[in-house]
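[Automated response] Your request has been received and processed.

Submitted sequence:
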Amino acid sequence: MELGFDTIGNATVVCYDKGPVLATDPWLSDTAYFGSWTMSHEIPEEQRHAILRCKYAWVSHGHPDHLCVDSLKQLGAESILLPDHHGGRIQRDLEALGLHVRILKSRVWHQLSDRIRVMSIADYNQDAVLLIDVGGRLILNFNDAGDRGWGAYVKAISRDYPIRFLLKLGGFGDADMINLFEENGARIVPRSREREQLGPVMAVEAALWGARFVVPFSSMHKYQRSDSIWANPYTADAEDYRAGFESKTSELLPAFIRYDCMKDSVEAINPPEKTIQVHASEEFGDNWKDLLTADDISMLRNYFSSVEHLNEHFDFINIRVGGMDNMVELSARKFDRGITFEVPRTSLMTAVQYEVFDDLLIGNFMKTTLHGRFGETKLYPDFTPYVAKYGDNGKARTNEELEAYFRAYRRRAPVDYFRHALESGSRHAVMAVLRTDSSAYRTISRLYHFITAA
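Generated structure:
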């Protein structure tokens, strides 16, 4: 293709300018999350070949359906492009594998070819968005990210583009821990059990971002492990996004398309659906009967106790492996609030060793029991962000490290950051960073109120 782009796979955009230039989040393998996930559709040979020939590959964040090391190793890319996240964990890991990495400074346009340029914006949740200008058409690649202070800035840029495409995570919410249980053993049924129509949600998102076209994205997966296939009814099919979609200003396109910027024409790509074969957990090294060793237990204690926020909000973390409970005591208080994770040893210790605990949560074969009082958001905001986002990926585990972590993101766009913290009621985004008696808080507060009153 002379100039344009394809959407294919789970969260991949392939951009062309007289040949393949950029592929985002290339996931070409059959599995992710310890074998729990596979892609819902095949990647046609034409698109697969183009991905492998791209000059650049951009990786939005560290989840294995976006950061697939095996796929990156296959690419002939000159550079792996990364958001400029505080701590630089992904950069170090990829460079240790011999890959060439280039960090894209946030909110700056980077020219990749004569007619393609990109702008990457990293946020404190270890997510990132990518704005892609292909011959004057704008792709808003939001993948899994939600607006954490960059929304107003992106909308301001978008106004200069009459043709805008929105690519954003959708679905019924299974791309998170939904394998939850009450203390009495009853399953906490996911809120998406009734499979409410996704079309109205897509229409609202398109209107919110002023998109002329919206494309289902970043949710094209199925479960394939025998201990996780129970979650397949909560995954979205491509047609689910169309149900109830109504808009006078936006058009919902198929999930897999080719857009020709020379003709401004859309062509559907119709890849075959994958035949899902159910795999036993043992095929991925997980035997539910395996027990922890003494060294394993010591490692687990160090891992969870190092996250100071957990010590302040939970009394215990219990790890049940092979039917045996292994208690990690976090507080001297009564054991009123805690979590039990029931999980096979191999994937557990791999997640802890390589600090990718989110992969266990999203894999949805690990069973999570909540003890005590939890809100509607369950593991948020006190567990998942502090362990998986700020701890594992951001390397911020102590309160002091957290203050430095949030400060680094705040400094990049102070007003946007502060506005987001106020509007979202994000306690960890504002209170952990700015004391209300600090001069920085007072300065930004005055500036924010001046701007909003204007």
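Summary generated for your ticket: The first strand starts at residue 3 and ends at 8. The chain is about 30% helix and 25% strand.
If you did not submit this request, please reply to this message.
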